[in-house]
Amino acid sequence: QVQLVGSGGGLVQAGGSLRLSCAASGRSLSSYVMGWFRRAPGKEREFVAAINWSGPWTYYAESVKGRFTISRDDVKNTVYLQMNNLKLEDTAVYYCAARRGGSSNAGHDYAYWGQGTQVTVSP
To answer: What's the average model confidence in pLDDT over 48-58?
Structure first.
């Protein structure tokens, strides 16, 4: 079982930055992949980024590549999403998620979800 607590959302102007955090607890997190997803108003949930605990690989959606960075702190069992040069279209509720196994950008592959944190980008 994995418990996830997301935080760090807020209101920011376009071009600004925010850092989201996802604190994870549970056993054997080294076998898990951690992902960030988002759901904008009136839209489907979409994949943002993923990282694995046991190796250095990361994986990004094209829409955020070069602007967002996913990272992890093994001591704190926390995954971060650094979001720079935010755009209006980044406004959404952001969710962290965890799955056992390999990389995936499909939400249905993730068994554990945090509660979501709102990110609002203003003009």
So the answer is: 85
